[in-house]
Amino acid sequence: MKKPLLLVLVALSVLAAACGGGDGATATTAGDGTATTGAATGGTVGIDPNNPTINLAVNPWTASLLNVEIAKQLIESHLGYPVEAVAIDENAAMFTGMADGTVDAVLELWPSGITDDEQAFLDEGSVVEIGELGAVGKIGWFVPQYVIDEHPDLATWEGFQDPANAALFATAETGDQGRFLGTDPSYSQYDEAIISNLDLPFQVVFSGSEAATVAELDARVAAQEPIVMYWWTPTAAVAKYNLVNVPLPEYSEECYADPAAIDCDYPEDVLLKVASAQLEEKAPPVWEFLNNFTITTEDQLSMLPAAEIDGEDISVVAKEWIDTHQDVWQAWLP
Questions:
Q1: Is CATH 3.40.190.10 the right assignment for the domain spanning 11-137+269-332?
Q2: pLDDT higher at 91 or 228
Q3: pTM as predicted
Q4: What's the whole-number mean pLDDT along residues 244-262?
Q5: Euclidean distance between CA atoms 309 and 214, whole angstroms
Q6: How many helices (H) and strands (E) does the chain have?
Q7: Nearby residues of 310 by Cβ (< 8 Å), 6 or more positions away
Q8: Among 2-16, 66-80, 151-165, 319-333, which stretch is predicted with the lowest mean pLDDT?
Q9: How far apart are CA 255 and CA 249, in angstroms?
Q10: CATH 3.40.190.10 in the chain, residues?
C-alpha cells in the first residue's frame, strides 16, 4: 500500500512528522481539537478557523504519509481548511469512518485489498471513488538479487517447491520448512493460502510491522543470508537492497474469487483515491482539489529516499516537492 534505498522511519515517528512540524504548513489545535491557527506554505490564504477540519487517513507506509502531507500543506495554505492526518490501518474501520463522515478521504487505496465488506460501502454510495492517484503498485514475493545469483532456480516460484531450497530459508521457528517473512498482519496478504495451495514447504511468520521487516531484511542482507518476504513496489527498500520480485502463477480474477483458494500472483494495482460522500457538501473546494490531486509513481520514488534513507522530516520532503512542482499542483486548485 505502495519507493529507491533503508526504511529507517518507524511508522509512529513518521506519523508525528506528517501531522505537523518542520517547515511545512501546520494547524495548531485547541483543547477540543479544533484548528485555531496555521502557517501558510507560500500560499495566499491562511487557515480559517471557521472552516471544518478535513480528516485524511494515513496508512502505515511512507508513501501514504507523503501523499497526505502534500495535500495537507496545499489545502491549508491555499484553501484555508485545517487538515488532520488520521492514523488508521488499511481495514474496514477506514471505510466505516468515511461512511459516517469522521474520515473524509483516503489518498492511496490498493484495489486488490478491498474486501467484500468494504466494497459494500462503495456499492451503496456512502464511500465514493474520486479517481486514480497516478501511482501503480505491485505486491508480491521478493528476494535479494544475491539469492537468485546463488540459486538460479529461485528466480520463479517453482524453485521454492524443492525442500532443499526451502531449507535455505529455515529458522529455528519453522523447523525443516522455509520461513516466508510476512509483515503487518493487518495488511492485505494471501501468502498463507498461496503457500498451502501451491503445496510449498514454507511457513509464514509475521514480523509485525514494516519497520520490523526492514530490520530483518537489513540483517539478512548484511550477512548475505537467504530471505523471501512479502513486499511491494514502489518502495525505497527495493533499490536499497536490490530486491527482485519472484513471479508466481499468473494473476486472474477467477483465482481471487475465493480468498482461501488463491494460488496465483498478486495483481498490479492502479492506486485509487476514495472519499466520504459527505465531503462534497462539507467542503466543496477540498472535494474538487482531492479529485484533481495526482501523485505518480515517479513522484513517490523521487521523495521516498529522502524520507526513508536520509531520515528527513516528512513535512520537509513534502514541501520540497511542492516548491519544485508548482506547475503540477496549481492545476489541482479550484
A1: yes
A2: 228
A3: 0.72
A4: 95
A5: 12
A6: 14, 11
A7: none
A8: 2-16
A9: 10
A10: 11-137+269-332
